[in-house]
Design a protein that fits this description.
The complex is a heterodimer. By secondary structure, chain A is α/β, with parallel strands linked by helices. In chain A, about 30% of the residues lie in helices and about 20% in strands. Chain A contains 13 helices and 12 strands. The radius of gyration of chain A is 22 Å and the shape is globular. The radius of gyration of chain B is 27 Å and the shape is globular. Classes of the chains: A alpha/beta, B alpha/beta. Strand 12 of chain A pairs antiparallel with strand 9 of chain B, so a sheet runs across the interface.
Chain lengths: ~350, ~625
C-alpha cells in the first residue's frame, strides 16, 4: 500500500516525545524506517501496539504514536502473547534486544516463536548491554573485552537466527539498522506474515560497541560480505557475484568460487517446510565477522496459536450455550425445602 | 436392597467422621469423593479433608505412599472435616500405622486383611502383625479380606477374559465403598450411575466396579460381623438448591460468573502447579463461556500474558501457589504501576521453597501483602470456605475492575481440595460488575489530548483505554509517571507524591467497604478471636463450643487483608484479649499489632493440616484466662 491509499504519513506514527538515544545510535534509523513503513503498508495507529521489555531498544514504544507497553525485562513476548490472544484485531509488535530477548527473556522468545503467536518480533542486536553501560551480551563473540570481561568473554555466543529457526519460527529474517531499503523490505514481509515473524536487526551501539558489524556494514566490506538472500534466486554474492553457496556432504553449506560451483549453487527457497537448509544458511556466519546472509531465511504458512485458541472458543460456543445458572447447577444437585 | 438375613440395630447419629486410607494407588480420593456425594444426596451438611502424598506414586505399601480422605457429615451445621474419625478404613498396614492414632477410642476399624502380608507389614515398619496382637482391643475391628472378596465377586468376568485380574483387584475400593455405604444406610444408586457414566464405552470396567460396589454392600448386609448400622439424618440447611463444591471449582465458577456479570471475556494464563492446577482444568472445560485459557511456559509468562490481556480489555486472571507467586512478583509490581485490572490467585501450600506441595498453609500472607520491590500496595482478599471461594472470586474481580488494580485472592490447599454443600446463588442476584468500569472512548484532556493517568476523583482509578480506540493512543510501563499524562518522570518529589497516591487508592478500597461483621451473640464477650482464610470453619466451631460451655467469645473473620478494614482499629481495642490463630507463624497477628498497637495473641501451627476445633478451644481458653 502507498501513502496515498492509507491517507497516513510517517508523522501519524511519530509521538511528541523527545527521542533520547545516544547521538548516532542505530536505533534512530530503525525508528524512522518503522514509522515510515507503517504508513506505507496501511497500518492504523490505533490498532498498532508496540510491546517492549527493558534495554535501550525497549524505549522504542514511547516514540511511536500508537498504543505502547514498556514492560519488564525479558517479558515482552509474554505480555504481547496475552494481548494477541485477547485481541485479534490488533497488529502487535515486540521490540527487544540481545540481552532482553536472548538472555533474561530467552524462554519467552522461544515459546512465542514455536507457538507461532501472531506477533512481529524485532530483535535489535548490538552484541552489548548498553543501558547498563557496557557488559558483554549473549551475542558477544568469544574473547570480546568489555566491562565484565576484562580478560575477554568465555561465553559461546548465540546466533539469534539459528535460535529462531531451531524453535521452528515460521518467519525468520535478518537486516541492518542503517540499510533503510533492505530493512523496509524485510519488515514489510514480516508485517504481511500471519503468525510469529522474527527479525534480527544488526544495530550499532556507537558508545559501547561501535562497529561491531563493520564486516557487513562497512562501505567496502559490505560489498564483499553481504549474502543477500532472495527467494527463488541462486545464492551468489560479492562485487561481481564471484562467490556462491553450495551444499556439502555433511548437510552443511560452504562458500566456494562461483566458477567452481557449477549447478551445485543453492537456490534460496524461503518456503521449504523444513527449516534445515535455512538453519545451515544461518551457520555460514555464527557471528557476523565475514560473509553473512541477510534477508528472509524462512517464510512458511502454518497454523497460528491465537487463531486456533479463538477457534476452539468459537467451536465450544457453537456447541454449548453459555448458561451460568446451568453451570452452577451441573453435577449432583439436591433441593432443601422448609 | 432386599434380603436382610441378620437382625440389626440401626443407630441414629447426629454426625459421623469417616476416613478412607490406603496406598496412593488404591483410589482413596475417588472413594471419598463418592461417599461425599452420597452423603450430600442424603441431605447431610459435610466437610471433607483429602490428604495425599506429593509423589504421584510413592513406593507401594510404604508410609510415604499413604493417601487418605476424611469426611465429616452431620444433621447439623458442619464447619470442619472432623477431629477424630469414628470409622477408619485401612487398605493396608501402612495406612493403619499412619492413621490408627487418630481413630476415636472405641471406634470402628475396617482393614483389608488380605494386604497384611509379611512384606507389607515390613514396608510399613511393623515388627509383628497388629491384627494379631492386643493393640486394637478397644476398637471394633472388622478384618475383611477386601481383595479376595472382590476377586471372587468378579470371578466370572475374569474367567471369561472380560476383565484382567489387575483391573479386577483395583475395584476393591468400590467394595470398601459399598460396605461403608451400607453401614451408613446410604444409597449406592448415584455411584452406580456415576461409574457407568465414567467408564462409558468400557462396559466391562463399569460392570466390574458396579459388581464390586454391590458385593461390598451385600457383604455388610449378609455377614454377621456388623450388628450395627448407622443413620445420620438430613441436616436442616437453609432452603434452596445445593451441590457439593471444592474451593478450586468454586474459584473457577466465580471467575466465569464475574466474566458474565462484567460482560468481559475471561482470560486465564497459568502454569501447572499444585494445588492450583485444577482451576486451569476447570476453566479449560468452560470455553463456551468465551474463556481463553493459556498454559504458559512459566509463571512469569502466565502473569505477563495476563497483564497483556488486561491491557486488551479482558477480565484477566492468573493463579499459582506460593513458589509461583514468588516468580510473578516483579510482574505484579508492573500491573500495579500500569494500573491494570488483574486477579492473581494464590492457592497457598506448605512453604518455603518447594515446601509441602500437597499440604495446606496460610504462610503467603506476607508475600501477598508485602512481597514486592518498592512501595507496591496491592489489595489482598481471602476465601474462607470452599463455597465462599465463589464469592471471593467475584469480590476480587470487583475490586480489580473498580480500582484498575491487581488484586491477590488467597486460597489454600485445604480449601482447594475439600468439598462442602453449597447453596446455589440466583444468578440475577450476583453483583453487577458491568457497573464497575467503563472503557474510555473520548479524549479527556485539553485540545483533544488523552490523559491516561487522569484519575476518577472518588476511586482514583485511571481510565481503561483499549488499543483499537482511535485518538486514545498512549504508552504505559513500569517507570514512574507524571500525574495525568503518565509521561515518564524521574523527579523525586513526584515519585513521593505518586507513591502516597497509590497508598491512598488502596486505603479508599477499605473505606468503601460495608461495616465489618462481628459474630458476638451475647454482646458481652471480652475475648475477640480474629481469623482469615480457611480457618473459618474450625474457628466457628470452636467459638460455638466455647459459648455452649458458657464463655462469651466474639469472632471476626477477615475477607480483606489489604487494606485491613477501617473498623478493625476500634474493634480490637474493645476487647480484653484478642487471639489470632493462623496456619503460619503469626503473620496477621503481626500486621494487626503493627496497625493497631494492640497486643494481639498469636496461636500458630504449620503442620500441613487444618486446625481441629478442639485444639482451638484449648488455645482460646488458655489465652482468655479464667475470668470469663
Amino acid at each position: 500500500m502507498t501513502e496515498a491509499t492509507s491517507g497516513l504519513t510517517k508523522k501519524d506514527f511519530t509521538s511528541d516525545r523527545e527521542v533520547r538515544w545516544c547521538p548516532g545510535c542505530g536505533d534512530y534509523a530503525i525508528l524512522s524506517t518503522v514509522q515510515s513503513l507503517l504508513a506505507e503498508v496501511g497500518a492504523r495507529p490505533e490498532t498498532t501496539v508496540f510491546v517492549s521489555g527493558i534495554g535501550c531498544s525497549s524505549r522504542f514504544p514511547y516514540y511511536m504514536d500508537t498504543y505502547g507497553f514498556h514492560s519488564i525485562h525479558g517479558r515482552a513476548p509474554a505480555v504481547a502473547t496475552g494481548l494477541a490472544i485477547a485481541r485479534p484485531d490488533l497488529d502487535v509488535w515486540v521490540i527487544t534486544g540481545d540481552g532482553d530477548g536472548l538472555s533474561i527473556g530467552g524462554n519467552h522468545l522461544v515459546h512465542a516463536l514455536r507457538r507461532n503467536v501472531n506477533l512481529k518480533v524485532l530483535l535489535f542486536n548490538n552484541e552489548i548491554y548498553g543501558l547498563t553501560k557496557g557488559q558483554y551480551s549473549p551475542t558477544s563473540p568469544i574473547g570480546s573485552v568489555h566491562k565484565s570481561t576484562p580478560m575477554g568473554s568465555i561465553d559461546r555466543p548465540l546466533n539469534p537466527v539459528s535460535l529462531a529457526l531451531g524453535a521452528e519460527a515460521t518467519f525468520v529474517a535478518r537486516s541492518i539498522d542503517a540499510d533503510r531499503a533492505h530493512l523496509s523490505e524485510v519488515l514489510t514481509a514480516a508485517y504481511a506474515h500471519r503468525g510469529a515473524a522474527f527479525v534480527e536487526i544488526y544495530q550499532n551501539c556507537v558508545v559501547f560497541n561501535d562497529d561491531a558489524f563493520i564486516a557487513v556494514t562497512g562501505k567496502e566490506e559490505r560489498v564483499v560480505n553481504q549474502i543477500r538472500l532472495r527467494h527463488g534466486e541462486p545464492i551468489v554474492f560479492g562485487p561481481g557475484g564471484e562467490r556462491a553457496v553450495v551444499a556439502q556432504g555433511d548437510g552443511s553449506l560452504a562458500i566456494v568460487p562461483t566458477g567452481e560451483a557449477g549447478d551445485r549453487v543453492i537456490v534460496h527457497d524461503a518456503h521449504l517446510p523444513e527449516p534445515t537448509t535455512a538453519f545451515a544458511l544461518s551457520r555460514l556466519a555464527p557471528s557476523p565477522t565475514g560473509p553473512t546472509p541477510i534477508g528472509v531465511f524462512r517464510s512458511v504458512a502454518a497454523p497460528v496459536y491465537d487463531d486456533l485458541l479463538r477457534e476452539q472458543v468459537e467451536t465450544a460456543r457453537a456447541r454449548t450455550p453459555a448458561d451460568l445458572g446451568a453451570l452452577l447447577a451441573s453435577g449432583n444437585v439436591w433441593d432443601v425445602t422448609d | 436392597m432386599s434380603g436382610t438375613t441378620v437382625e440389626r440395630t440401626r443407630v441414629t447419629l447426629h454426625n459421623a467422621v469417616v476416613r478412607f486410607a490406603g496406598d496412593s494407588g488404591d483410589g482413596m480420593q475417588l472413594t471419598g469423593d463418592r461417599f461425599t456425594a452420597e452423603s450430600a444426596l442424603a441431605g447431610n451438611d459435610l466437610a471433607t479433608l483429602p490428604d495425599y502424598p506429593a509423589e504421584i506414586r510413592a513406593p507401594a505399601g510404604t508410609l510415604a505412599g499413604v493417601s487418605s480422605f476424611q469426611l465429616h457429615f452431620s444433621d447439623q451445621d458442619v464447619h470442619t472435616p472432623g477431629d477424630q474419625p469414628d470409622v477408619l478404613v485401612a487398605m493396608n498396614p501402612a495406612a493403619l500405622k499412619k492413621h490408627l492414632k487418630d481413630l476415636k477410642p472405641g471406634g470402628t476399624l475396617i482393614v483389608n486383611s488380605d494386604a497384611f502380608t509379611d512384606r507389607n507389614l515390613q514396608k510399613a515398619g511393623y515388627e509383628g502383625n497388629p491384627l494379631e496382637g492386643d493393640v486394637l482391643t478397644d476398637l471394633q475391628v472388622h478384618e475383611v479380606p477386601l481383595t479376595s472378596l472382590t476377586l471372587r465377586a468378579l470371578e466370572e468376568p475374569i474367567a471369561s477374559g472380560g476383565i484382567g485380574k489387575k483391573d479386577a483387584e483395583r475395584s476393591k475400593n468400590m467394595f470398601a465403598l459399598g460396605l461403608v455405604s451400607w453401614m451408613f444406610s446410604r444409597s449406592i444408586d448415584a455411584t452406580e450411575a456415576w461409574l457407568r457414566a465414567k467408564f462409558g464405552a468400557r462396559q466391562a470396567l463399569a460392570d466390574a466396579n458396579v459388581a464390586a460396589l454391590k458385593a461390598g454392600w451385600y457383604y455388610g448386609e449378609t455377614t454377621e460381623a456388623f450388628v450395627f448400622t448407622y443413620e445420620v439424618p438430613a441436616a436442616r440447611l437453609a432452603p434452596g438448591r445445593y451441590r457439593n463444591i471444592t474451593g478450586n471449582q468454586a474459584i473457577a465458577y466465580g471467575l466465569v460468573a464475574a466474566s458474565v456479570r462484567a460482560g468481559l471475556p475471561l482470560f486465564y494464563g497459568s502454569y501447572p502447579i499444585t494445588p492450583a492446577s485444577d482451576i486451569l482444568h476447570e476453566l479449560a472445560k468452560l470455553k463456551h463461556f468465551g474463556v481463553a485459557t493459556f498454559q504458559a511456559e512459566d509463571e512469569i509468562a502466565a502473569i505477563g500474558s495476563t497483564i497483556g490481556a488486561a491491557f486488551g480489555g479482558a477480565l484477566a486472571v492468573t493463579a499459582s501457589s506460593g513458589p509461583g507467586i514468588a516468580l510473578k512478583t516483579e510482574a505484579m509490581g508492573l500491573a500495579m504501576m500500569t494500573e491494570l485490572p488483574v486477579v492473581i490467585i494464590d492457592v497457598q501450600r506448605g512453604g518455603p521453597s518447594t515446601g509441602l506441595p500437597t499440604k495446606t498453609e496460610q504462610s503467603d500472607l506476607f508475600q501477598a501483602v508485602l512481597g514486592r520491590n518498592g512501595e507496591a500496595p496491592i489489595p489482598v482478599i481471602a476465601a474462607s470456605s470452599p463455597g465462599d471461594a465463589f464469592d471471593a472470586a467475584l469480590e476480587a474481580a470487583r475490586i480489580a475492575l473498580t480500582y484498575r488494580t491487581p488484586v491477590v485472592l488467597l486460597s489454600d490447599g485445604y480449601l482447594a481440595n475439600s468439598a462442602e454443600p453449597w447453596r446455589l446463588p440466583d444468578v440475577d442476584d450476583l453483583p453487577d460488575l458491568a457497573d464497575a468500569f467503563t472503557f474510555a472512548t473520548e479524549p479527556n484532556g485539553p485540545d483533544g489530548t488523552f490523559l491516561p493517568y487522569l484519575r476518577d476523583p472518588e476511586t482514583l482509578a485511571r481510565p481503561w483505554a483499549l488499543p483499537g480506540t482511535p485518538g486514545l493512543q498512549h504508552r504505559i510501563g513500569g517507570l514512574e509517571k507524571e500525574p495525568d499524562t503518565g509521561s515518564i518522570s524521574y523527579d523525586g518529589d513526584n515519585h513521593h507524591a505518586m507513591t502516597v497516591l497509590r497508598h491512598e487508592r488502596l486505603a479508599r478500597i477499605g473505606r468503601a467497604l460495608p461495616p465489618l461483621e462481628v459474630d458476638d451473640p451475647s454482646g458481652s464477650a471480652d475475648v475477640l478471636v480474629v481469623g482469615w482464610g480457611s480457618t473459618e470453619g474450625p474457628l466457628r466451631a470452636a467459638c460455638t463450643e466455647l459459648r455452649e460451655r458458657g464463655r462469651a467469645v466474639a469472632r471476626v473473620h477477615l475477607r480483606h487483608l489489604a487494606p485491613l478494614h477501617p473498623d478493625l482499629d476500634d474493634l480490637v481495642r474493645r476487647y480484653r484479649v484478642v487471639v489470632c490463630p493462623e496456619n503460619n507463624m503469626g503473620q496477621l497477628s503481626m500486621l494487626l499489632r503493627a496497625r493497631t498497637l494492640v497486643d494481639v495473641q498469636p496461636y500458630n501451627r504449620v503442620s500441613g493440616q487444618p486446625f481441629s476445633s478442639a485444639e482451638l478451644v484449648a488455645a482460646i481458653e488458655s489465652f482468655a484466662g479464667s475470668t470469663a
